[in-house]
Amino acid sequence: MNPDTEICQYCHQAILPQYFFCPNCGSKVHEAPLSTSVVTQIGVYAFSIILPMICFIAVTKWPGQKYFKSEDTKTKNIGTAAWVILVLSTVITYWWAYTWTVNTVNSALNAASMDLSSYSAQ
Ligand SMILES: [Zn+2]
Description:
Layout: E1 6-7, E2 14-15, H1 38-60, H2 64-68, H3 73-121
Antiparallel strand pairs: 1-2
Bound molecules: zinc ion (ZN).
Zinc ion (ZN) binds near residues 8, 10, 13 and 24.
């Protein structure tokens, strides 16, 4: 066997390492590289500039703090509830991002070990 060829983990056909999709079964075998075209670069840079601005506007325009500082009990309660919801949603978002990252890393590790076992089975 040519040492440069790999095995499709789905149909076990020999494939070339530069293939992104298996020519036999059509399964995705490699991640396509990220686009480096000028338009994509401009998009990525523009997003990097705009994202902190969106965050800044979102934080400064958040009305919860104004309510929380109010002397009126009912208004202050609304502010307290807004704070609790903000903290909960932050915790849930971080937890979700953490779980997603762990799952992605685990599935990548599983795929890598499946590749190894299919090699040794050949
Ligand atoms: Zn295949």
